[in-house]
């Protein structure tokens, strides 16, 4: 599995109601980041402020100022759904993620273990029950 190259394919699919935010996240945006809160309505995120319709893609995905790839304009204030992405290899395949290599597709279980390791600092701990 390659490192993320900031291609933005994941964020291209983060519209049309595909993501959610907690009430606490939305409340925080309303207080501290009204520019983000503008794109929320009735608990939904990435909504057109004028029409109330879901946007087709994340409004915070911007071209990188370095010339290649993309950047998240709200990276440090993004919702938990974004922080935890990608969740699994199947999701990466659906989104044509450029992190995947042919060997990952040949051994999905191994690729999932690698992804879980890469994302371990971005996800909440898994509580194992006896």
Produce the secondary structure layout.
Layout: H1 9-12, H2 23-32, H3 34-37, E1 40-41, E2 44-45, E3 61-63, E4 70-72, H4 80-83, H5 89-94, H6 102-106, H7 108-118
Antiparallel strand pairs: 1-2, 3-4
Task: Describe what you observe in this structure.
The chain has 130 residues and is mainly alpha-helical. It has one domain. Helix content is 34%, strand content 8%. The protein has 7 helices and 4 strands, in the order αααββββαααα. Strands 1-2 form a two-stranded antiparallel sheet. It is globular. The two termini are 32 Å apart. The model has no long low-confidence stretch (mean pLDDT 86).
Spatially, the strands of the biggest sheet line up as 1-2
Strand content: 5-15%
Determine the N-to-C terminus distance: 32 Å
Domain count, please report it: 1
Short structural summary:
34% of the residues lie in helices and 8% in strands. It has helices at 9-12, 23-32, 34-37, 80-83, 89-94, 102-106, 108-118, and strands at 40-41, 44-45, 61-63, 70-72.
């Amino acid at each position: 599995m390659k490192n993320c190259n900031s291609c933005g394919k994941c964020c291209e699919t983060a519209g049309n109601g595909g993501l959610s935010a907690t009430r606490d996240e939305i409340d925080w945006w309303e207080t501290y980041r009204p520019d983000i809160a503008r794109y929320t309505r009735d608990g939904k995120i990435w909504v057109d402020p004028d029409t109330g319709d879901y946007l087709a893609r994340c409004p915070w995905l911007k071209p990188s100022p370095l010339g290649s790839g993309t950047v998240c304009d709200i990276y440090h204030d993004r919702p938990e759904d974004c922080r935890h992405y990608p969740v699994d290899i199947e999701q990466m395949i659906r989104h044509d993620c450029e992190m995947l290599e042919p060997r990952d597709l040949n051994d999905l279980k191994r690729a999932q273990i690698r992804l879980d390791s890469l994302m371990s600092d971005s996800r909440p701990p898994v509580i194992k029950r006896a």
